[in-house]
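<amino_acid_chain>
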Amino acid sequence: MELIHTVAELRKYLRGMPNNVFVPTMGNLHEGHLRLVEEAAPRGACTIVSIFVNRLQFGPKEDFDRYPRTLADDCAKLSSIGCDVVFAPNEAELYPEPQTYTVQPDALEHMLEGASRPGHFRGVATVVLKLFNMVQPHAAVFGKKDYQQCLVLRNMVRQLALPVEIILAETVRAQDGLALSSRNQYLSAAERAEAPRLYRVLQEVRDAVRTGTHAWTTIEAEAMTQLERHGWRADYITVRRRNDLHLPRDDDRELVVLGAARLGVPRLIDNLEMTL
């Protein structure tokens, strides 16, 4: 496995390798990330994983400075599953000058996660576009846990006519249902025992919707109240259309339930797709 730190080295290594598949990450890898790499591997001759903690997608009060940097451990994990290249640039390499040109996403930037984290998706889209230009993959793999992010990037690729296939991989969960996330490590033992409730609440919302009710707001409010009774601070529990995350119409059949809530310090997100 090659560990590469500069764009010049990366382009030299990839010269004549058009058939590569890309998995962008911020490092601190867990089993969910490794599943993305395993999903990518059969789809190209070269599997590339980037590890870069992107300042642009963090808000001023978020955890950029304390986000774990675990490059040596990450590389060991990636090597063990046959990753070909790790691209781990520093901030000066990826942003050699102030990033005044940015990608402005569509309406998705301002709803749900975008409303809770202003500027987040602008930062995500900008860094992913830069990484696509550096890696030149024919396909890239992202996890569905970050559902709204997946839609933002899919729309960016389509509207900017990028020659990259976006592959969405299913959320990887612990045995008790908790979606794997780097932020789970911030949970105390008691919080970790409580954390699967978010997934259970989303399942309850999904089951209620499947009965045929269209009382979306009532179901959502009851779900948020249940979380708050158990010590959560809920940002949203909501039923949306899968393709654009707008509020569903009565005849919509492809839906997704999304939730975001803070348990202690960590803010956890999750979602469940459904077809009526």
In short: The chain has two domains: 2-169, 182-275. The mean pLDDT is 95.
